[in-house]
Specification:
Blueprint (H helix, E strand, L loop, with lengths): L1 H10 L5 E4 L16 E2 L1 H4 L5 H19 L7 E2 L3 E5 L4 H17 L7 E4 H7 L9 E5 L3 E3 L1 H15 L2 E4 L19 E3 L13 E11 L9 E4 L5 E5 L4 E5 L13 H14 L7 E12 L6 E6 L2 E5 L5 H18 L3 H5 L3 E4 H6 L1
Parallel strand pairs: 1-8, 4-11, 9-16, 15-17
Antiparallel strand pairs: 2-7, 3-7, 4-6, 5-6, 10-13, 10-14, 11-12, 12-13, 15-16
């Protein structure tokens, strides 16, 4: 969020300083350890309709935003494939019902396409004869999160953004509006803002990045499973990102044997070619989440705007939140926020509630 805002505001002619306790690689951020999937209908099984509308809106905005960057960022919009083994058919049926109910409430979403075994073989030949049926969610997509972080860092440099890497600061270090001080402070610290935002918590996630030249998947694939539903996101050069774990803890110790085995075993169950893959990395980070698992924007003090709680939907909804913040900075109001059922509060309003 910070980098997207810095680039947009610098392009609009503002002088921008960005402070980050990490470096250009984003090594301390949840954004670096992510699948980068843009799947609003798939995510509707675990979130609210407002977030789904943000995700649908953001798909179009991502194309626009990426087209303005000098460095290339892998992006595709070939849909999401959902598959399951026969013993999990009941869970898959319940999921299909959830997706149909969501689309009834958010009709701008493309309809889910049920896949027979023959149609599944056409859509994803690598999985032919492995699954008896599936679901295709058209229009959903993904991007390469690490390429994006690098491209935004280069864009900030080209636009003259003053980047203060490896320098942790707090909003109280500034006096926005005073002489010699910034007009606005925008706080996108995620879990770094914990002491200023009661209820903010970390939700641990573990992600494996593997190199599998023997596997060809055309789009992100999700496996329905009662204990460890996973996603497999194919990136460029036969790199796959495998993840899905959610653990209610802020522990940042290395991934457990159990979690790693479950991720890799589930991937192998989708495609046996993963057996000969090479593990590039197993990474751990904590997503910043508020008690309702929904994002929020608030004006804590005059001219200090906070954006937080993106939880597991950061890349999916970031352009929507970007445009909300730009509206708020320009006019003090955001019609988009109301469209997305997005909380935009002041601390005074919060206390009164």
């Amino acid at each position: 969020m910070g980098r997207l805002l810095a680039v947009s505001l610098a392009r609009a002619g503002h002088a921008v300083d960005l402070y980050d306790r990490g470096g250009p690689e984003g090594e301390h951020s949840a954004a670096r350890v992510a699948g980068g999937m843009l799947a609003p209908l798939a995510e509707s099984a675990v979130t609210e309709h407002g977030v789904v509308r943000m995700g649908r809106y953001a798909l179009g905005r991502w194309r626009e935003l990426l087209a303005t960057l000098a460095a290339p960022v892998f992006f595709q919009q070939e849909g999401t494939l959902i598959v399951w083994h026969r013993q999990d058919a009941a869970d898959a049926s319940r999921l299909a019902g959830q997706l149909a109910a969501t689309r009834a409430q958010v009709p701008e979403l493309p309809a889910m396409e049920p896949l027979s075994a023959a149609r599944l073989a056409e859509v994803e030949p690598a999985l032919a004869q492995r699954f008896a049926s599936g679901m295709l969610l058209p229009g959903e997509g993904q991007l390469d999160n690490r390429q994006l972080l690098s491209a935004l860092a280069l864009e900030m440099q080209a636009l003259g953004v003053r980047s203060h890497w490896h320098q942790a600061v707090e909003p109280t270090d500034f006096a926005p509006g005073a002489s010699g001080q910034p007009d606005w402070v925008i706080d996108c610290r995620g879990l770094g803002a914990r002491k200023d935002w009661p209820g903010l918590r970390g939700v641990r996630g573990e992600v494996a990045r593997i190199h599998a030249p023997g596997v060809q998947l055309a789009r992100p694939t999700r496996l329905v499973h009662p204990r460890y539903p996973i996603y497999i996101a194919p990136k460029e050069n036969h790199v796959f990102v495998i993840g899905a774990t959610e653990i209610e803890t802020e522990d940042l110790s290395p991934a457990s044997v159990r979690s790693t085995l479950e991720l890799l075993s589930a991937a192998y169950a989708v495609h046996p070619g993963f057996a000969e893959a090479r593990i590039l990395e197993v990474a751990v980070q904590c997503r910043p989440a508020l008690p309702d698992n929904l994002p929020a924007v608030r004006l804590r003090t005059p001219r200090v705007l906070e954006v937080n709680g993106l939880y597991r939907h950061g890349f999916m909804i970031a352009p929507a939140l970007l445009d909300v913040v730009l509206e708020l900075l320009a006019t003090g109001d955001s019609p988009l926020a109301r469209r997305f059922d997005l909380a935009v509060d002041t601390v005074a309003e919060e206390a009164a509630a």
